[in-house]
Amino acid sequence: MLYFANPLYLIALAGILVPIIIHLVRFRRYRKVYFSNTEMLAELQSEQRSRTRLREWLVLAARILAIAFIALAFAQPKIRRDEQPSLTGGTCVSVYIDNSFSMGNEGTEGILLEQAKSKAREIVAAYPSNTKYQLVANDNAGQRRRAMTREEFTTTVDNLRLSPHTIPISEAMSKQKDFGHIAACANTHAYIVSDFQKTACDWDEIGTAAEHDTNERDNTQFALVPLSAAGHGNVYVDTLWLDTPFANAGSEVRLSVKICNTGNKTVEELPVRLSINGEQKSLATIDIEKKSQATANLAFAVSETGTLNGCVEITDYPITFDDKLFFSINVKPRLRVFALHGDSPNVYINRLFAGDTLVAYTESPLAEADFTFNDETDLITVTSVGKIQSGIAQALATFVTNGGSLMIAPPSDCDRGSYNTLLSALKAPLLDNWVETSVASTWLNSEALLYKNVFERTDDNMELPNVNGHFTLQITPGAAAEPILRLADGEPYIVAVPNGKGVAYLFTAPLDPKYSEFVQQALFVPTVYNMALYSRPLPQLYYTCGSEDMIELPTAGQSTPTLSIAKEGEVGSTVVNIRYNNRRAYLMSDATELDAGNYRLSDGKTDLGISFNYSRTESQMDFFADKELKTAIKSMQNDNIELYDSSTKPIDELIKQRSGGTSLAKWCVFAALLFLLSETLLLRIRPRKRKGQG
Predict the structure, then answer these.
(1) In this structure, is the dihedral angle defined by the CA atoms of residues 418, 424, 429 and 433, taken in order, positive or negative?
(2) What is the pLDDT of residues 206-235, one digit of tens each?
(3) DSSP string covering 1-56, please?
(4) Distance between CA atoms of 540 and 612, rounded to whole angstroms?
(5) 248 class by beta-carbon count within 10 Å (0-12 exposed, 13-18 middle, 19+ buried)
(6) DSSP letter at 406?
(7) Model pTM greater than 0.85?
(8) pLDDT tens digits, one per residue of 54-94
C-alpha cells in the first residue's frame, strides 16, 4: 500500500504548469534577415521543423517530470505491506537479549554479547523517546518485566552480563507478548537478538502456540536479529565418573573424564589437569579429533578421610565457562559391618573383618541387636539364624532400601516362612526345598560389581566351591535376582537382589565347611569384603546449577532445620532450607543462585562437600544459519515473524521500514536528477548540418 508521510508537499506538483506555460508562450524573439532569395531557407525550415519540435517536447517532458519527482521526494512516499498494522494507539518495544554462555563467543565485531547490547541500543534509538521499553534476558529479574524509559533500558543493558541460565525462544516470545498486553499498547515490536543456538530454538512450540493463540488484541510483530560467531569451535569438559564406586583412605581412585571438541580442527596434546583440595594430583594429555570426543584417564591416592574437593581443568578460548568440572568425594573413616548370628558368631566373618583397621566391626545375636544402626552401617550379615521375626525382617528390608548391603546365609534347618517374609519384602526369590546332595559350582559371574577389578583374567581352571546341600529357589512375580555363582544343577549358589538404593546377597547354602568349601577358598575374601566395600555407593559427584532436581543429603534421620552452604576458598555462607521425606534429607539445587564450584554444607557440627557445575547445554556450538532461520519462519506460517539481516542494512533503517514502510524518497530524488540531466543533454545537442549547407 502506497502512502505519503508529508502529503502537503504534493501541492508543489502545481509547479509543472511553469514549463508548460513557457513552452506555449515561447518568449523567444525572432530577428528579421533580408535575403534576395528565400527558396533555400524555406526548404531547410520545412526539413528541420519536425526534428526541432520533437526535441522541444522531450525537454518539456523532462522539466515536468523533474519538478514532479522533486515534489514527491518532499512528500516522502512509502510502501507498507497490507498486513503491517498502523501505529495508532501507541507502540511498545520489547528486546530479548540472549545472554547465555554461548554469547561469550567471538564474532567478527567482538564478543557476541557486546554486539547484542549495541544492537539493543540502536533499536531503542530508532523509536520516539516516549516509547515504552522492556528488556528480556535469560536471568530475567523482576524489574525487567515492567515498562522502562529509554534511559532505564540503556542502563539495564549496560549492566547485563553472561548468565548460566538459558530459556527457550518460545518462552522469551511469550514474555514479550505479555508485556504488550500489560503495557496496554496497540502494537508491540519485539526483537530477539541471539546467536540462535539450536538447543534453545523450539520452533515447533512457537508454531503450536501461534495456532492456539485466540487473543484478537495481540498484535506483536517479532523480528529475529541473528548474530554469528567467527567460526571458533569449543573444547569442554563434558562429564566425569569414577571407575570404582568407592573411596577410602589408603586406596587409589581412578576416574575418567570425557572431553568434547565441537570445532573443525583436531586438538592435539591437550593438557587435562586434576586437582584435589587445591593441589594438582594428576596430569594427562589427549588428542581429540574434530567434531569428536575423547576420554582422559586420571588417578590419585586417597591419603585422608573427609571431603575431597576435586577439579578437572583444561584451557580453551573464548568459551571458558565449561573448562572446569568440579566434584566432591566424602571419604568415610572406616567401613561399618554388623554381624548378626544365632547361637554363635560365624568364625569366618569374624576372621575377615575383626582385625581390619579400615573396618568398624560389631557382632551380636539377632535377639539382642539394636536396630538404630541403619544410617551408618555399610553391611549387615545374617548367618546361622533359625528364625527372623517380622519386625526385624521389616527393619532389614528398610536398611537395604535406604542403601545398605545385606548378606543372608540361612542354616539348613531354618524357619523358611520367616525368611521368606524378609525375602518377599526385598522382592527376592523365595527359599523352596532343601536338597541334601553334593554339587559343584560351575559358573562365576566375573562381570558382577563384586568382582570389579578383582580378576585379571578368568579360566576354566579357577577353583570354585562345592556344596553338600543347598536350598532351591522359587522365582515369584516381580522378583529380580542377578546370579553371582551357579551350581552344576542349574540352581544359584549366590544371587544379588537390588532393592531401592541397596542390595541383598542371598546364599543358598550355609557359610559352614560342613555344607560348603566356599569359606575356605580364596574367593571368599573378595566376595564378602566387597559386599561391604561397595555398599552405599558414593553420593553423586556433582550437580547442575539451577537444576530443579532434589539433592539427597547423607544426613538422613537428623532433624536439622537448616544448613549453611559456603563456597570453598571464599568468606561467608548462605543458609538454605532442606526438606525431609521418609527420614531422608533433600536440598533443592535451585534454592539459591550458585556459581560453579566446590561448596561446603554444614549443620554446625559436621561438614559435607558438595559441588555444582554449569549445564553443558550451552557448550554445543551448533547454531541456525540465516537460511535455516528463513526456512523455520516459513514452516511456522506466522506472518508476524520476520528475519532482520543487520549485516546488509543498519538496524535503524530496517526498523523504519518495519514501522513506517519502505521509503521511496531517495528514488524520487534519483529520478529528478536523471530528468534534469536529460534536459541539459537535450538542450546541448544541436542538429547536424547536411553537406553543402552553409
Answers:
(1) positive
(2) 866 555 565 555 678 899 999 988 766 899
(3) -EEESSGGGGGGGGGGHHHHHHHHH----------S--HHHHHHHHHHHHHHHHHH
(4) 11
(5) middle
(6) E
(7) no
(8) 777 888 888 888 888 888 888 877 676 554 444 445 678 99
